[in-house]
Amino acid sequence: MNLAEQGDAFAAFWQERHLCTLATARPDGRPPHVVPVGATLDLAAGIARVITSGTSYKARLIGPAGAPVALCQVDGRRWSTLEGLAVVRTEPEQVAEAERRYAARYKPPRVNPSRVVVEIQVTRVLGNV
């Protein structure tokens, strides 16, 4: 998906400092697991990234096979949801790239030797920005 086609307001919104929520499906059919996260968006690649610990519940729900997720960001009446297939990346270069992007949007992340990256290939965009 070419996220640059979403326009300048969309791109600017995903560069502003906002917390997001990440929703993942639970295997037992209970309501989705929804947690606050910091996220970054690579418009050119169509990929959103979330850094987390490899032992986190969200990373375990996504698992090695990947899973559909929804990433949402809200600021007053402005909102955007990105849907797509998430995978957990453990490669040091992928983790370093995600940390660099996170630091540019938020602040340098704390040291976490078990850090992984939830990488979401965006397939659908909802919202009003």
From TrEMBL:
Mitochondrion found in the keyword field: no
Domain named Pyridoxamine 5'-phosphate oxidase N-terminal: which ranges?
Answer: 8-125
Protein keywords:
Oxidoreductase
Q: Which domain of life is it from?
A: Bacteria
InterPro entries, from UniProt? Answer: F420H2_bilvrd_red/Heme_oxyg, Pyridox_Oxase_N, Split_barrel_FMN-bd
Name of the protein in question: Pyridoxamine 5'-phosphate oxidase family protein
Q: Which organism is it from?
A: Nonomuraea bangladeshensis
